[in-house]
Amino acid sequence: MFSGSIVALITPFNHDGEVDYVSLKKLVEYHVAAGTKGIVAVGTTGESATLTVEEHVKVVLKTVEFAEGRIPVIAGTGANATHESVTFSRLLNNSGIAGCLSVTPYYNKPTQEGLYLHYKAIAEESDVPQILYNVPGRTAVDLHPETVARLAEIESIVALKDATGDLSRIATHRELCGEDFILLSGDDATGLDFVRQGGDGVISVTNNIAAADMAKMFDLAKDGLFEEAEVINQRLMTLHKNLFIESSPIPVKWAATKMGLIAHGDLRLPLTPLSAASQPIVAQAMSEACIY
User: Fold this and answer.
1) What's the domain range around 61?
2) Total tally of structural domains belonging to the chain
3) What DSSP assignment string belongs to 182-200?
4) Catalytic choice (161, 216, 241, 253)
5) Mean pLDDT for the chain overall
6) Does 203 count as an annotated binding residue?
7) Mean pLDDT value of segment 149-171
8) 188: Cβ–Cβ under 8 A, 6 or more apart, which residues?
9) Catalytic residue check, 241
10) What is the separation, in whole angstroms, between the first and last Cα of the chain?
11) d(CA 177, CA 147)
């Protein structure tokens, strides 16, 4: 259902701070042409925390419209209040999305039981498959494998995006959740190793600016051609790492602007433009990756 190279899509803004839907359409076309296997609209990389509910839903719906059924669109529906995530799910029912990606509630640090009940409530209000998203480095809470296993028993919860970078969890999740449960990496630097060890794909920041390479790499991995895939991965490795030299999506939006994929690299406060000190570092990574 969900596999290969999926992009955690940036949300482009105009200089006035409004969503740039012309650039958004251009991004969708770029990923369709590159062979990207899916788009996550308004996830963390899409600056979900700074969009209003109305903007959030509109960006998802416009992404579905621009995709025209050529590429599946997964809606980011995470929030630190369960009722807000449930609201997103209700508003996006019957919208044409292929699934929902919900990050663990951030800042309020729920217990494992709280996490279980949070995701259970979301699943009960949605008509599409659900992807759990664990990224403790951003949320200050860790979704334990045992809790993932409990949630995997709910029919509509079909996948986990694991951005811990802890490859030892793959075998644990497989044992606890079964072979049919989808495991997706959320860490570009270890994404290929994640698939090598039994994962199904990656939801990627790098994919925003190296879509064709990422698609080819994970297509090769799917066919078991890991040596060939590793050649691409090593060329992209500095990029994987330096796209996080400042808080994502700051570096990747700067890079996407340089490549002409979006008209402006504007972000919403509290995020700020890529610093002058970091710009040559990201530019060098792009050069080494042979994408610019």
Assistant:
1) 4-288
2) 1
3) EEEE--GGGHHHHHHTT--
4) 161
5) 97
6) yes
7) 97
8) 202, 204, 205, 206, 236, 240, 243
9) no
10) 32
11) 10
Is 182 annotated as belonging to a binding site?
no
Q: ∠ CA(66), CA(72), CA(78), 5° rounding?
A: 95
3-state secondary structure of 249: coil
- 107 part of the active site: no
Q: What is the pLDDT of residues 76-104, one digit of tens each?
A: 999 999 999 999 999 999 999 999 999 99
Q: What is the pLDDT of residues 164-177, one digit of tens each?
A: 999 999 999 999 99
Q: How many CB atoms lie within 10 A of CB 159?
A: 25
Q: 20, 12 in Cβ contact below 8 A?
A: yes
Q: Are 225 and 216 in contact (CB under 8 A)?
A: no
What's the whole-model pTM score?
0.96
Q: Write down the catalytic residue from 30, 106, 119, 133.
A: 133
Band the pLDDT of 292: cuts 50, 70, 90.
confident
**What is the mean pLDDT of the segment spanning 56-85?**
97
The two three-digit tokens of residue 140, written as one number: 């200050």
- The H or E element that residue 271 is part of is none
Q: Residue 269 has which token pair?
A: 């406060």
